[in-house]
Amino acid sequence: MSTLRQAVQEYLNVRRALGFKLTGAAKGLLDFVAFMERRHASYITQSLALEWARQPLNLQSASWAQRLSFVRAFARYSSATDPRTQIPAQSLLPFRPRRARPYLYSDDEISKLLQAALQMPYRYERGALLPWTYHCLLGLLSVSGMRLGEARNLELQDVDLTAAVLTIRGAKFGKSRLIPLHASTCKVLADYIARREQHWAGRSVSSFLFISSRGNRLDNSEIHRTFYRLSRQIGLRGESDSHGPRLHDMRHVFATRTLVHWYQCGDDPERRLPILSAFLGHAHVADTQWYLSASPELMREAMRRLEQRWENRS
């Protein structure tokens, strides 16, 4: 094993021990090492990093920038033990990602989505639970602020209906957290779990909460395909639309409604924002602030409070 290849493996082990998954970075860095070995280069230079990042030529600039960022982070680590290492400048291949504009679902749209899930057709008896599965999954996403991956990874042991708490394990950056549940949410979850137990009685089934007709964890791609079908069915998307409201937008709805509720109750949203960040599983409050940037209702509440402050000063 070359010194550079060994250094990459040590770097990946250290980062993963800190909770980073590095799936794309690991694949990219191993490819970068192979590139360096073909060039008989024993240490990183800016020119070689740039040359590798721009391969293949048909990639978009965003992909080039991402590839270079993999090497830049590794180069910072490697420079501590090899002073010859050149860290690629931040000005190389600059790219600012464009975040998708969030869609803020109305209560009526969410209600229609949940009703459409309950009316999903199924061909065989083994699929009879799927309408209830998607009804519960979509409803939970809309009221909990969970990421889809976190909901998919829920196991029965993570659902404590007595304490009204969900345990999220190994989420982003390897963190875990607790999510309190409203009594109405507990009722829906209890009903789904009872139906799940009855449907799979006497048969082998996965311990995951949300399962497919085969008894294993719901497939991520299949969830999205089902969501798109339901969205077109209720008019959220056109029949030929390739873009539209996303499942991830449920988190935006949860975040903005929580903050609006605090405004309306007279609470101090600025003081309570770290609580919302922890609830959503964000490492920084700035990540939460992005979720709050597109709500007209939230802007109205903020302006109303600002006007009241001006009136009190006059």
Automatic annotation (TrEMBL):
Coiled coil: none
InterPro entries: DNA_brk_join_enz (IPR011010), Integrase-like_cat_sf (IPR013762), Integrase_catalytic (IPR002104), Tyrosine_recombinase_XerCD (IPR050090)
Domain of life of the native organism: Bacteria
GO biological process, one term: DNA recombination
Key word NADP present: no
Keywords: DNA integration, DNA recombination, DNA-binding
GO molecular function: DNA binding
Occurrences of domain Tyr recombinase (ranges): 99-304
Family: Belongs to the 'phage' integrase family.
Official protein name in the record: Integrase family protein
UniProt lineage: Bacteria, Pseudomonadati, Pseudomonadota, Betaproteobacteria, Burkholderiales
